[in-house]
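User: Could you walk me through two proteins back to back? I'd like the raw sequence and the structure tokens for each, with a short line separating them so I can tell where one ends and the next begins.

Assistant: Of course. Protein one, sequence then structure:
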Amino acid sequence: MSEHHTRRRVLKAVGGITAALAVGGGSALATAPAAGAAEDGHGLHVVDRLETDPRMWFYRFQTDAIGWQPAVNVLLPDDYHTSGRTYPVLYLFHGGGTDQDFAAWDRAGIRELSAGKPIIIVMPDGGHAGWYSNPVSSNTGPRNWETFHMAQLRPWIEENFRTYAEHDGRALAGFSMGGFGALKYAAKYFGDFASVSAHSGPASLRRDLGAVVHWANASSAAVDLAGGTVYGAPLWDEARVTADNPMENLERYRDKRIFLVAGTSPDPVNWFDQANESQVLAGQREFRAALDGAGIPHESYEEPGGHVIRGDLVVRDLDGMIERLRKA
């Protein structure tokens, strides 16, 4: 294969794995008096909060891990304030794009989709193209999303909310880039999470000449890192790619609940959607075949349409993870 055709194949494959999901505007946020949560801990300092809504509580943090102040929405069960019970927790990650942030799942209707379900849902910022990673390089200050999520936010949540701080009490899920983040964290922190779900999330980093790695590098350089990259360029940090690649860490998914969704008919007119979901579908099929070969059960869906959140499958996913996790 010529160099020209190789480059063209890579560029076609990486054309849009992390398409933004435009689902409406965000809601206004204001500060509110403290309601008992610790102000400091695990490298986090709360600089803003809103705890007036019965279910959706908002926090913004100062942290050395991120060069700006990331936020998180915490969606509580309907009876959280009256039951006195402890609940399982889901860390739910947003996709990539300049309109994607901690409020993306709220705009996508997660309050309604989770109504009546006994689970706490934590939805943090992950950067517009942060890829749920500590990047190899950044020219715009620290963007260590993995450190923020796993070393800082998770213990802070467990100290300030009634959650089960154990393997059978935690789940991960996400859309697009966030689906990749869920798969990545489930493998790297395999003793900490019992359920993982990827809604149109890529599951194979090295296929198609490393299409997902190239797109992670290109998108992070353009949007988040001012020319820095997640995996290194022109040469990759191969150890990081291997550590993050679901396909190279199959045994770390054993005994977990695994839920995968991909679209089979992306919009043929929308090149961005076509490139996104075509790559996701092929990667998930490769991952599923490898799981089958290793004798690792999983639940998977191929649905008509492209790179979108499918609310009915989000509800099915929530019900499945609640069944798998420790009960409230």
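----
Protein two, same layout:
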Amino acid sequence: MRVQDMNWQMVEAYLQRDDRCVLPLGCTEQHATLSLATDSILAGRLSEEVAGPLGIPVFPTLPYGITPSFMAYPGTVTVRTATYVALLGDVLNSLHAHGFRRILIVNGHGGNAPGQGWLGEWLAAHPGARVQWHNWWNAPRTWKVVQKIDPLASHASWMENFPWTRLPGVTPPDERKAAVDLTRLKQLPPREARTLLGDGNFAGLHVRPDRDMHLIWQAALAETRDLLEQGWSP
């Protein structure tokens, strides 16, 4: 259940019987022909579809992440790593103060990885808490399905092209784009990165049939649900 559909009394009552919650992390950045909010849309929707039937609160998705390399693409918003880690710490501190002890972070943006590295520091200071950081799109079972469908897949390609990340009136190219040299890309400033990437797709087709996307989504739902139900250390 979404926190925006609850009041504080409902949360207080929930905490009398359970200490789990879900925190989705997204980003606002270029995704070729897809929505700039693709990472946020996917992390938020996945969290709600998994936690809703279990009656577990899902907090609003953090819509901004760490994405400095895409700042030559209008609409992209990036935050400094120090800012992001500080914000994440404040959010987790708030959840912990209210009594949440098992927090599943559903991350939709690879650039947020510094938060995952920092998480050990937070856990060391909160020994009674359990936090799982779940990069849903490349988690083992979900990524296996992606690779089985088409191994040429990456950021802003077909693997993120779901019905809910597409934009009306926008027709994606038919090209099957060769994989970008990521080692080279990571060395470039934003304007040169845009020149290398073009529309922003890293590799592969821009779109595949909806039946393929359904398979990926079902795998992601099952994998995330298992973490929420069974992934907690004693």
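The chain has a mean pLDDT of 97.

Let me know if you want the two compared in more detail.
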